[in-house]
Design brief:
- The complex is a heterodimer of chains A (338) and B (454).
- Helices cover 79% and strands 0% of the residues of chain A.
- Chain A has 338 residues and is an all-alpha fold.
- In chain A, helix 5 packs antiparallel against helix 6, helix 5 packs parallel to helix 12 and helix 7 packs across helix 8.
- The chains are: A mainly alpha (338), B alpha+beta (454).
- Chains A and B meet through helix 1, helix 6, helix 7, helix 8 and helix 10 of A and helix 6, helix 7, helix 12, helix 13 and helix 14 of B.
């Protein structure tokens, strides 16, 4: 798992490295020039412009050397150093973007954005899974019934709609035609305001509704399929013969046995939703990780890109790990087997 | 895994309405693609992003079929071709172009534009006059063209917003029974004399060129009456005809979806089968590599790749393949683990056949139904991912895809301004295309894995 993390990081650095180098060097050049221009006495001490230029170039070279930018970006020391820094969660400073409070430390920016993304997508995933599990269980109860057919059809149809397009439609319908919700999900208030939480929740409503609307169908369908498998088992038939009501069988016995795969998928979809958040957040203008990532790519703010990729991968790996643990908890056979 | 012959599968497939619906939609899409490729010249998408090509089109106009459903007819954007008349009178040659049309809409047109390209010698006089449905005569413009000693062609666009037109109409203001300052030029041209209302009926726009030389000739002459409705699909903020973009998007989406899914399924299949067949160390190493790719966050990486390397559509297809073969590799590995224990595979092995021959001749043919099902199922994901990337503005600018149309819609705030014809059709097409493949894939899947059927 650690190896996966390292490889992800390495790939990210490889992909963005050369650009990062150019940007950093340009930054140094700009810095040196502006420092010299601020001090007119340096310029006056030179007889002709060529000498002055040479002096600037020499200064730039010196600065580049002290920063270690003279060796190419793919040199082992530099890649190693970058990776070591990231491992100890030191992401450095962002080149262009800042957090709402004005800090340009990547760690601060990420810390500010992550809770918002988690808030939005966890809420949506919880709503999706609750609706999905009950709808799935209900439709597995009577296979071929109207509920079952509607659920299955809805699952198939909704899975081929892009969430962001539904988002655009929802904004069009509920923010402009019927003005119920705000169009932009970023609250206009200052984050220190006591009403901020409520404003945030109100602004969150439209994205949550959209994500849930698209998501729950597929969930219900999955749960239904697992339940159908479980309901074919012998012990369920035995319970039926014993005269236990069908409702009790489904919600108490069958659902518990269908739990392991459902929980695994829940954990995976939680972290998967974070990666998919980029487009959704861009549509709703939600001030979370996805938006940050998109903005960072737009201006090539590499420390942020690397930091965000790292965090996304870590979250993903953690959820795989948790899914494994939960699987063992719900299905004791896995624990004893290994 | 139950073995079914291809005829069995065919028979079962033909029984399923869902599967047939999928095939039906797909056939329509293919027909549309063929139509697009044949009817619209392929250089069209190259000028998709060139605003100069679209000047004679209206800005954000609704599709013209909307008029069928509304009581107040929205003025349609019309491009008129002229009727030619040439006369000679007392040594003055008159070359005339007439545009005759019946205006039946319930609102004023947005503007008009007259485009012409005239070949002349000397300094001819150009006049534009309108005969309104009530028989009255309105002079719009009367101007001399720049003097030319030899035969030259002169190109010009005259807009209704031209101040010269306004001046000319103001001079004829006694024609109207109301204060003309409240209305703009185009409204005055199309207005009733008594009230500030639209006057419907036959309008004749006459363009007269008077000259003492006989060589005057219109090379090109076009009158555009700008409306708020145009074409089958309307236009966008940049005046582009959305019908063309949507039509061209169809073959592109099918191409992207099908090539990505075929590529990734075949790659995953061969990878997984080889890994499962070889077993032991090879299997271990290959599966670990598979896990690594699986754990990479796909969308962020796709974005980084598109930004840093290239957003050419062919490279994007490659990038999409990199991230979509993983799941198939896992499933086909476990399938090949089962198949390789079958006796005929072992027999082939003992006979000393080459590994590659066993894999391609004995194992993979057994998995073909599964392969077709997964190709169909993975098409929608490829299409939506590509659309998503295009939506973020990372699409290939030389090919108008549905995602890019939506990207433009989003940047120009189509939702806020209520341009539904700009938002709904591209997304709907993405969804329908995806749906066709999901239908086909699901049907195949239930036939191949009968356990899901109950």
């Amino acid at each position: 798992m650690f190896a996966v993390l390292m490889i992800t990081l390495l790939l990210t650095i490889l992909l963005v490295g050369s650009n990062m180098d150019t940007i950093l060097k340009q930054g140094v050049m700009f810095q040196v020039r502006s420092e010299i221009i601020e001090n007119p006495s340096i310029a006056e001490s030179f007889a002709n412009p060529e000498e002055f230029e040479a002096f600037i170039q020499q200064k730039i070279d010196e600065r580049v050397k002290t920063l270690g930018l003279d060796s190419p970006w793919y040199s082992p020391q530099r890649v190693g150093l970058t990776m070591y820094k990231i491992l100890i969660l030191d992401f450095g400073n962002a080149t262009f973007l800042t957090s709402d409070s004005g800090s340009s430390n990547v760690g601060d920016i990420l810390l500010e954005k992550i809770p918002r993304t988690i808030l939005l997508f966890t809420t949506a995933t919880i709503i999706i899974s609750i609706i999905g599990i009950f709808l799935g269980a209900a439709s597995s109860n009577k296979i071929g019934s109207i509920t079952d057919r509607i659920t299955s059809t809805f699952a198939i149809v909704s899975s081929s709609f892009p969430v962001w397009w539904i988002g655009m439609l929802m904004i069009f319908l509920f923010a402009f035609v019927y003005q119920i919700f705000p169009a932009r999900a970023t609250p206009t208030m200052d984050s220190s305001d006591p009403g901020y939480i409520f404003a945030l929740l109100y602004h969150m409503a439209l994205p949550v509704i959209t994500i849930s609307l698209i998501g729950f169908g597929a969930w219900a369908y999955l749960v239904r399929n697992f339940m159908v498998g479980v309901l074919q088992e012998d012990y369920i038939t035995a319970k039926k013969i014993m005269g236990i009501s069908k409702r009790k069988i489904i919600y108490k016995h069958a659902l518990k046995n269908a739990a392991p795969p459902i929980v695994t998928i829940l954990a995976l979809s939680l972290s998967g939703s974070l990666g998919g958040a980029i487009i959704t957040e861009a549509v709703f203008d939600w001030p979370g990780m996805g938006r940050l990532y998109f903005d960072a790519i737009g201006v090539m703010d590499l420390p942020i890109i690397i930091g965000a990729t790292y965090i996304l991968t870590v979250l993903f790996l953690i959820s795989i790990f948790i899914a494994d643990l939960l699987y063992g908890y719900f299905d004791p056979r896995v624990r004893r087997g290994s | 895994m139950s073995v079914k012959t291809s005829t069995d599968i065919q028979k079962e497939f033909l029984k399923s309405t869902v599967g047939l619906t999928g095939i039906f939609i797909l056939l329509i899409l293919i027909a549309v693609s063929i139509f697009a490729v044949i009817s619209i010249p392929s250089d069209t998408f190259q000028y998709w992003n060139n605003p100069e090509k679209w000047v004679s089109y209206p800005k954000t106009s609704v599709p013209s079929w909307v008029n069928l459903f509304v009581a107040e007819k929205i003025p349609e954007h019309k491009i008129f071709e002229p009727e030619n008349i040439t006369l000679e009178q007392n040594g003055v040659f008159l070359t005339s172009q007439q545009f005759r049309f019946n205006y039946i809409f319930d609102d004023f047109p947005n503007d008009f534009m007259y485009n012409y390209n005239l070949e002349y010698i000397g300094s001819p006089l150009l006049e534009i006059n309108v005969i309104k449905p009530d028989g009255t005569y309105l002079e719009l413009i009367s101007t001399t063209l720049p003097y030319a000693t030899e035969l030259t062609s002169y190109e010009q666009r005259i807009f209704s917003t031209d101040s010269l037109l306004r001046k000319n109409i103001t001079m004829q203001s006694d024609f109207y029974n109301f204060e003309i300052n409240d209305m703009n030029t185009i409204e005055l041209i199309f207005s009733n004399q008594k009230k500030q209302e639209i006057l419907n009926g036959d309008y004749v726009f006459m363009i007269n060129v008077y000259s003492v030389e006989p060589q005057n000739k219109f090379l090109n002459s076009q009158l555009i009456v700008g409306g708020k409705a145009f074409g089958v699909m309307g236009t966008d903020e940049l005046r582009r005809d959305l019908a063309i973009g949507l039509l061209w998007g169809t073959p592109l989406a099918l191409f992207i979806g099908i090539s990505v899914s075929i590529g990734s399924v075949i790659a995953g299949l061969v990878y997984g089968v080889y890994s499962g067949y070889k077993g032991k160390k090879t299997d271990e190493v290959m599966m670990r590599f598979n896990d690594v790719i699986y754990a990479l966050p796909a969308l962020p990486f796709l974005i980084i790749l598109a930004v840093t390397i290239s957003n050419s559509i062919f490279l994007m297809i490659g990038f999409l393949m990199i991230f979509s073969w993983v799941g198939i590799a896992k499933v086909s590995r476990s399938m090949s683990l089962q198949i390789k224990t079958r006796q005929y595979v072992e027999a082939a092995k003992i006979m000393g056949q080459k590994d590659s021959k066993i894999i391609f001749k004995h194992i993979i043919p057994q998995m073909m139904p599964y392969v077709f099902a997964s190709i169909a199922i993975s098409v929608p994901a490829a299409i939506t991912t590509e659309a998503g990337l295009s939506f973020l503005g990372l699409g290939d600018p030389s090919f108008p895809t549905w995602g890019q149309i939506l990207h433009d819609a989003n940047t120009y705030g189509a939702a806020a301004q209520g341009f539904w014809w700009w938002i709904v059709p591209p997304g709907l097409l993405i969804a329908i295309t995806g749906l066709a493949f999901v239908f086909i894939g699901n049907t195949l899947d239930t036939i191949v894995n009968p356990k899901l059927k109950r």
